[in-house]
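note to self: dont lose this again. the chain is below, predicted strucutre after it. 183 aa total, dont forget to put it in the shared folder this time
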Amino acid sequence: MILASQSPRRQCLLRLITTDFLVIPASIDESHRVDESPEEYVCRLAEGKARAIADQVAPQETIIGADTAVICSGHILTKPRGKEDYLVMMELLSGATHQVYSGICVLHCAQLMVRSVRTDVTFRELSISERLNYWDTGEPADKAGGYGIQGVAARFVQSINGSYTNVVGLPLVELEAMLNDAS
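---
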């Protein structure tokens, strides 16, 4: 099995299903297309990552591609480009409900399965000092939406409706069902 992602969080989550996998990160254009829904966006990226490495591995290998996006008030919140970008994201997320979409793709022996998973997450109101202190931890810098639910930001989450592992970056229930269907 091959994971087409360099995300340490995805690797940790996948280890909950299997330890028998290799990591081959895929490099693709992750730009959002005009009029592309969040579901279409994450599914396209997940499939693109899986297909990007398909020529590098044996055809019988199972390849997993995944991508996650945070959507709030119609804005796709990617990894923050810096502190100012992060603060804009936190202003949107503070006291609001946002959506986390993950696209997952399983490519096995020319069989392609792609699906999206959505989770609603509600943050409590965040003070300016909480936002700044969180930035100073370094945790938000490499995370979609500028936060990691599995880390310090867990204390900001008022409620979650849907898959927790989806918010971390790899929806395990759905992935395991896809892997079972592929075998």
